[in-house]
Amino acid sequence: IRGCEITNNGNGIFLRGDDNGDESTITRNTLVAGNYIHGNGNIGSETQHNIYSQGVSPIFQYNRIGRQRPGAGGISLKDRSANTVIRYNWIESGARTIDLVEAEDASIVVAEGEYGNAYVYGNIIINEIDDTDGYAWAGHIVHFGADNFADDGTGDCTAPDPDICRNGTLYFHNNTVIIKDYRTIAQDSPWVQDRLFELSVRDATADIRNNLFHLHAPNGHPNLTLMRQHGTANLNGVNWITANWAEHALEDDYHQWTGTINYNGTLIEGSAPELAAITSISGNLTGDDYRPSASSPLIDQATPLPPTLISAGHGVNQEYERHQAGVNRNLTGAAPDLGALEYR
Fold first, then answer.
1. Helices (H) and strands (E) in the chain, counts
2. Are 229 and 195 in contact (CB under 8 A)?
């Protein structure tokens, strides 16, 4: 699926993979590249999304995934597949930005060797929060694990077969994550935190390295949270995060924190990553430029990826080019820069 504009639907792209043991209904090796997917979803509904996929080894790359239509409550990219690859995209948030959960009625998908893993890298992820504009925004940007079979309180997988939950690893590297929060209320309750990752089952793991996580909140009190609920987050390599962040979310009676955060690498904290431009006007992304400026603390800070990721084809050798294209990522210094874009 290449070079399309897909808009004004319920589900923008729907990839089917419910098999009941029948290979003929499994979607395999789908490439979704260079499309503009936006304005989908149904008003008042949370169950239709810009992309909704279930299958084996889908690749999403070079896409511009915009917001859903105003009033819709779906997700930008929801996936229930095995061996999912999401790379070099521009993704604006819905109710979640990326939702990676368990397969439904798909024993063939669950039996795939890479079912539990997903690879998310080189993406520009933007969560813009403005309670006055009618668009959905993500309280939790990246969700990994399960939704139908996750016990919120304990992190147990409640499926008849525990392998149905995504109990593997989310490989999340070299992404630029920008939260633009224009709310004016004090962010001191569970409902107004800006949360990066939600691992919803205990055995899920996130390998987090070489990313930029920046909260731009010109009107309020920043309250950036790394994790929610369960699982294990391994902060590997080097990551940059806006200062005054919290390890895990303020929980409520139905959601408890049982997870673990391992600081295996370097976490750089700062007030601003000194990007080329971040506008302070809600809804204006055309003036934003998330590439590092010449004085940025992101420059030359990334560390090499594990050889296993490189050999599996998940090295970072390209970057997203506005819009709906990819270009070679050319090294400009002694080491790669953090995030999805290299300084030019």
1. 2, 29
2. no
Of 341, 322, 338, the residue nearest 66 (C-alpha): 322
Per-residue model confidence as pLDDT tens digits over 258-272: 999 999 999 999 999
DSSP 24: G
Long-range contacts for 155-164 (Cβ within 8 Å, ≥24 apart)?
155/200, 155/201, 155/202, 155/229, 155/230, 155/231, 155/258, 155/259, 156/201, 156/202, 157/201, 157/202, 157/203, 159/102, 161/110, 163/110, 163/115, 163/116, 164/102, 164/103, 164/110
Whether the CA torsion 251, 242, 314, 92 is positive or negative: it is positive
How far from chain centre, in Å, is Cα 183? 22
pLDDT in tens, 156-198: 999 999 999 999 999 999 999 999 998 887 655 555 678 999 9
CA dist 279 and 94 (Å) reads 20
Say what the pTM is: 0.97
The rounded distance, in Å, linking the Cα atoms of 177 and 61 is 17
Q: Are 77 and 40 in contact (CB under 8 A)?
A: no
